[in-house]
Automatic annotation (TrEMBL):
Residues 112-253 form the SGF29 C-terminal domain. It is found in: Nucleus. This is SAGA HAT/Core module component. Keywords: Nucleus, Transcription, Transcription regulation. InterPro entries: SGF29, SGF29_tudor-like_dom, Tudor_SGF29_rpt1, Tudor_SGF29_rpt2.
Length: 253
């Protein structure tokens, strides 16, 4: 039967033309659907941006909704849940054919002249109570173009601290997840040194990539530096793309 169809197709220009027309129609339908989906994603991004602007305005005015309580009343469990939700809802970068992922997509760093906006989450290097320096998860309050310094709030309400930091002490977090299936170059590679948010904390620590994500919804598997283990590294722990950034320091010897 298949052989008869092939013979008919080969013998008839009509069927070849018809098949070509079906392919063309299917391609056009797929492109139209893709355009609709991109438009929908743009609208979702606009809505999220508006909600974030309202949250920041409410915070500055001292007014909070039930879903975003004041820092002084936020329980740690609630904070951890919010951080997890932020990681899960980070949009996936979906580029057009041949389009490269932009800065702040996955492992791609921000451009040298990039300035994080008010409300953006960043990794900030601050001095701890004991005098040691550590990387914490923080929220941008403002940026002074005259001094080239940020004001950031410690995201952990237990800290209740505001820090004034130079740009070199700030690392913007990714604004899109990279898709391992289409843009693997936008992900950190195995054994690459990074700063990763330790699970159930608001602090970043040095770690090695153990396994990069294989699917868009996957996390990184990382090995945190930990001297309590014989090889100097913790067992593999999962950390979302949202909370893994480049580490400019050298790998420990």
């Amino acid at each position: 039967m298949l052989g008869l169809w092939q013979e008919t197709l080969e013998a008839s220009p009509y069927y070849r033309t018809k098949l070509r027309g079906l392919y063309t129609t299917a391609k056009a339908d797929a492109e139209a659907e893709c355009s609709i989906l991109r438009h929908a994603l743009d609208k979702i991004a606009e809505i999220k941006s508006l909600l974030e602007e309202r949250r920041i305005a409410a915070k500055m005015a001292g007014v909070y909704s039930d879903s975003d309580p004041p820092r002084k009343t936020m329980r740690r469990g609630v904070l951890m849940t919010l951080l997890q939700q932020s990681a899960m809802t980070l949009p996936l970068w979906i580029g057009k054919p041949g389009e490269s992922p932009p800065p702040l997509c996955g492992a791609i760093s921000a451009s040298s002249d990039y300035v994080a906006k008010q409300g953006d989450k960043v990794a900030a290097r601050v001095k701890a109570v004991d005098g040691d320096e550590q990387w914490i998860l923080a929220e941008v309050v403002s940026y002074n173009h005259s001094t080239n310094k940020y004001e950031v709030d410690d995201i952990d309400e237990e800290g209740k601290e505001r820090h004034t930091l130079s740009r070199r002490r700030i690392i913007p977090l990714p604004q899109w997840k990279a898709n391992p299936e289409t843009d693997p170059e936008a992900l950190f590679s195995k054994d690459q040194l990074v700063l990763a948010l330790y699970p159930q904390t608001t602090c970043f620590y040095r770690a090695l990539i153990h396994t990069p994500p294989h699917r868009p919804q996957d996390d990184y598997s990382v090995l945190f530096e930990d001297t309590s283990y014989a090889d100097g590294y913790s067992p593999p722990l999962n950390v979302a793309q949202r909370y893994v950034v480049a580490c400019k320091e050298n790998k420990k010897k």
